[in-house]
Structures are given as structure tokens and as C-alpha cells.
Amino acid sequence: MLSNFHKRWREIPIVVIDTETTGTVPGVDGVVQLGIAKFSTDRELLPYVFTTLVNPGRPISAEASAVHGITDAMVQGAPTLADVFATELVRELLKGAQPLAYHAPFDSAFMPPGVFERDWPWFDALTLVRLVDRYARGKGRHKLEAACERHGVKLEKAHDAGHDARAAGELFFRLLDEPNAPKVPEYLGDALKWFEAQRVDEWHRFNDWRARQPPMEAP
Fold this sequence. Notes:
Elements: E1 14-21, E2 31-39, E3 50-53, H1 62-68, H2 72-75, H3 81-85, H4 88-94, E4 98-101, H5 104-109, E5 123-124, H6 125-132, H7 144-150, H8 161-176, H9 188-212
Parallel strand pairs: 1-4, 4-5
Antiparallel strand pairs: 1-2, 2-3
Helix pairs in contact: 6-8
């Protein structure tokens, strides 16, 4: 990927990665399903969306199963995540592509070491949603399913890694065409820096808001 650093990022394929997990804590929880959708430089989804169940090597929490519907019995005999990323098919999907996810800090934290060169930064479709839909209201307004509905992107089955990956990629490109879309820098290195800066700014604004809230009364 380092060879792409000074290229225009729109001239580089985008690979969207989505995970379903045993829980929400990287390093403690593990991946139970992986989805990969690759988009060509002309924004076309390549014909094959890769999806596989993954053996996380630990129990799946009841709360997680209630979300994605995957149980311990379903992942028995499935490959480990390291084995999946070692396959020729997956290596070819990732080769030369810029990774993207919906809430990239979450999905990227579950990746095995060495999947991407030097812990390469990811693009994040959620970052664009928070900017384009800054004034949207309602609980869960920034969830993938809600964002897809607002912007006319079909999400056939939420919390299925393959469907989520495809929808997140289509949403990412749709958001870039919105009239109030932010201007993402042209070159990949600058674009990666921009996405990181937006995440830091979002973190700061959220915690500034939290700090200004009145203290909660004890029950």
C-alpha cells in the first residue's frame, strides 16, 4: 500500500471489510463472520462478495447472538480468522486496495497482525455519515441501516457481514455525491490524514458535549 501513498485515491480499488463478533471488546472478543466487498476504481462492485463464518476460539455472548443470529454451533469447524486471511482468494481481494469500513476503528481492531502494511489507516464511511447527516435526529440515526435508508442504499440483511460490507461501500460513494459532502483530499496520503483528523474532531466534540451536561442525580 505504501506505493499508493502519493496516488489519487479514486484511482485505487476500495475493499470494504465488515465483521460480526462475539462481543464488543477487541482483544477479548473475536470475529464470528467476515465480509469483504471490493469496489473498482470506477465505483463498480466486483461480482463476488466474500463472506465466511469464522471460529473465534471463544464463546459467543448471548447479546451478540441476539444481534447477528450466529451461534457457537454454527461456527464449529469454521476456519480461524488468521486462516481466512491466509487464503489466496482473500489475499488477492486485499492486494493493492485501500481498506474501508463502517466505524473503521472497531473492525480494524479485530484484524490479525500484518494483514495491512504497517497497520495502514482505513477510510471510514461512518465519518462521512456524521458530517453529511450532522443535523439528522433520532436514536440510532448513525447506524448503517438508518444511514442506508436515508440515502437510498439497499441493505438486504443488516448484521450480516457480507451484506453490511457491500452496503457500506455503496453508501460511502453515495455520500461523496451529496450536495453538502465534505471535500476529501485528492491524494491517498492526504485523504488518510483527513479521515484521522475528522475522527479526532468528532471525539473532541462528543466529549466536550458530555462534559457540559449537568451531573446525573444519584438514584
